[in-house]
Specification:
alpha+beta; 2 helices; globular
Length: 94
Amino acid sequence: MHMLYNSDSFVVVQFDVPADAALPETSDTLTRGGYEIVDKFARKEIFIEGAMAQSFKDGVAALIETRPAGPTQEEMDDYLERFASLMHQPVVMH
């Protein structure tokens, strides 16, 4: 688990999970994972994986490429806001 982004509005965490967590990880073990995006104000989140995760990653890369110094917090939050309509899972604190 790696926190990739944290603003007043959103948090993005990357998860890399071994394909079979019961087996020890080796160099040829397949991995899967994805991204958890949390909307702090709405207190909702989504976990994306597969093609949607790849599309998310490509979108972030394109956003980074457009600005040599990197995207502003506002630009990044605007990009993440695109996923807000997909967030149905409430954030629950344990």
